[in-house]
Amino acid sequence: MEWETVRLENIEKVAVITLNRPAQLNALNLQLGDDLVASLEESRKNKKVRSVILKGAGKAFCSGGDLVMGKELIDIDPPDPYRQLTKRLNRIIIEIRQLEKPVIAAINGAAGGAGFSIAMACDLKIAANVAKFKQAYTSIGLVPDGGWTLFVPLLTGFGNTNELLFLDPVIDAEKALAMGLINKVVEPDKLDSAALEWAERLAAGPYSFAIAKKLLNESLLTVLERQIELERQGVVKSAETSDYQEGLRAFFEKRSPVFVGQ
């Protein structure tokens, strides 16, 4: 099955969902958000599907939110793209967590901003050794969303989270593995087969996998739902600042931003 920006292929008991905006490095726009939610819902309803792989077409997993949306409205209504986009992103995150089937992120390249958040929401993460991770939000004057401020501290600890949040480094797959953000690193040409091997193993597993995921969610979902709403409010508030407008202009002008703290 194929939507405008997402492909869904079922390989026996495994659903493979591919973000399909390769020319835009699979940047999340409203259409991709809607299509990804629809593909996750389809995988949830399909009783034959027992596990899910989420990956990106081309050179990236997902480079983050599509900043072109912000650029188009920067002088009219700067927060509006984020009001709309966070609604989709939050639905994606909740769908991944509520899916009673293990979800594997197969990270082939850049995972930045919203793409970082989506990957962290998955149950297991396998990355190609060329993959790169970047928090990205704060470098343009925004704050993380999509559950980033919940998942990343849980996975890697408070100190590492602060490093990612305030210094915003680009980290490679090996460092992401050492920090606990991902589970495995493979050669790029082995990524699909490694993800499928895990997915097939999980698809052959017991129903207790679904119960176990529910148990993990019992303590997580209430906090997650509150956190993503607070993040949404934070993104909208930060998008109203002059620092965000400067950060976005600097991004498109390929220069370092000059923030003034307002």
Describe the model.
The protein is an alpha/beta fold and 262 residues long. The chain has one domain (6-191): 2-enoyl-CoA Hydratase, Chain A, domain 1 (Alpha-Beta Complex). It is 50% helix and 16% strand. It is built from 10 helices and 10 strands. It has helices at 30-45, 67-72, 80-98, 114-121, 148-156, 158-167, 173-179, 191-203, 208-239, 242-252; strands at residues 6-11, 14-19, 51-56, 60-62, 103-107, 110-112, 124-128, 132-134, 170-172, 184-186. Strands 1-2-3-5-7-10 form a 6-stranded mixed sheet, sandwiched between helices. It has a 4-stranded mixed sheet with strand order 4-6-8-9. A hairpin with a 2-residue loop joins strand 1 and strand 2 (14-19). Helix 1 packs parallel to helix 3 (80-98) and helix 3 runs antiparallel to helix 9 (208-239). The chain is globular and about 55 Å long.
Please give the domain count: 1
The name CATH uses for the topology is 2-enoyl-CoA Hydratase, Chain A, domain 1
Report the total helices. Answer: 10
Average pLDDT over all residues? 94
